[in-house]
Amino acid sequence: MKINFVEELRWRGMIHDIMPGAEEQLNKEMTTAYVGIDPTADSLHIGHLVSIMMLKHLQMAGHKPLAVVGGATGMIGDPSFKAAERKLLTVEEIQHNVDCIRKQLEKFLSFDEKDANAAEILNNYDWMKDYLFLDFIRDVGKHITVNYMMAKDSVKKRMETGISFTEFTYQLLQGYDFLTLYRSKGCRLQMGGSDQWGNITTGTELIRRMEGGEAYALTCPLITKADGTKFGKTEGGNVWLDPEKTSPYKFYQFWLNCSDEDTSRYIRIFTLLPKQEIERLEEEHKAAPHLRILQKALAKDITIRVHSEKDYEAAVAASEILFGKGTTEMLQQLDKDTLKSVFEGVPTFEISRELLKGDGINIVELTAAETNMFASKGEVKRALKENSISLNKAKISDTYQVTEKDLLSDSIILVQKGKKNYYLVEVK
Fold first, then answer.
1. Cβ atoms within 10 A of the Cβ of 97, count?
2. Which residues are catalytic?
3. What is the C-alpha to C-alpha distance for residues 99 and 69, in angstroms, rounded to an integer?
4. Taking a C-beta distance cutoff of 8 angstroms, is the pair 30, 44 a contact?
5. Which CATH fold topology does 348-427 show?
6. 233-333: CATH superfamily
7. What is the pLDDT of residues 269-325, one digit of tens each?
8. Where is 389: in which H helix or E strand?
């Protein structure tokens, strides 16, 4: 084995519980392990990254990772520590979500079939869709008692508020996944968040009772912020891996704005940086915390991994532009989506493209007549004389004619008044 998988997770703070015998199994031979992902959306979010990184470390240690997308269980919804039932999805919705998730996982794991430990993506709908209910309760249900199922913390917490039979069966279905993978893939380990312990151990119990086999559970802590609030949420909701849902710039900014305390944990969990490198970065950060060395290293590593180096560089450039260090050249390199993401919430005005044709429109007319950035032409002229107005980060005079050549991404003009006041002009 290339690295000791359990030791690697342990120093990174990624183990909450591990079943006796699991470490010995992993040290003995190449072991197949899986994590389950509910396809409740057509993108993963950063809450999924912990289990994905567990699979990544597993593969790097020479073991075989399986990602099981819950096409069947996603139609039910996991009740674990949830206050209410989820919206049930159709088969078509789930299939669309599965296809999208597959593409995102390929950025983290190697699926090269030539390798003995090539990753695989499976959908539990494939082995559940033709399983008749009567057959299931006869073949599987009889091996697990209701007493056993009700004793799980994830179920106990819902008994007071009510839990449907549909959700109650979830742990049995997840357990059957483990049993199926044990039979078909020789899978001996299931991993997940600490809230999944009950579901996972139901699977190990089924394997023991029905196959006389040994299988194991390993869970990671549920990630929270230092202040106790939920990780991965912003005012706008989840931080998604899909650039259409969360732009690379916003994604980068999320990590860049983490607290020092959180970043010290996150850089161990969400990057592949070695221990010595992380400790070196921490020392540098302590010496000059205002430089946010640790946050920048975290944001760089994970933005490149999820998106690309180009997206990372654009996010850095965009950050510098917003905070006053950017240049016209940097601005011209950003695409329309990044520009709009950076300046989200900035007052935006629309003008006709016709105004910019030929000799274009004078800056005074643009900012005081065609838009109401300024209350009057006199106010614009005073500001221009004071050299406090920039167009696309370049200072201009009151004689400046704005033309199509000033367009960023062929559709946007950025006007800045002073250091902090930005305006977007969108050309239609």
1. 22
2. 40, 45, 48, 82, 86, 174, 195, 230, 233-234
3. 10
4. no
5. 3.10.290
6. Tyrosyl-Transfer RNA Synthetase (1.10.240.10)
7. 999 999 999 999 999 999 999 999 999 999 999 999 999 999 999 888 888 877 766
8. strand 389-391
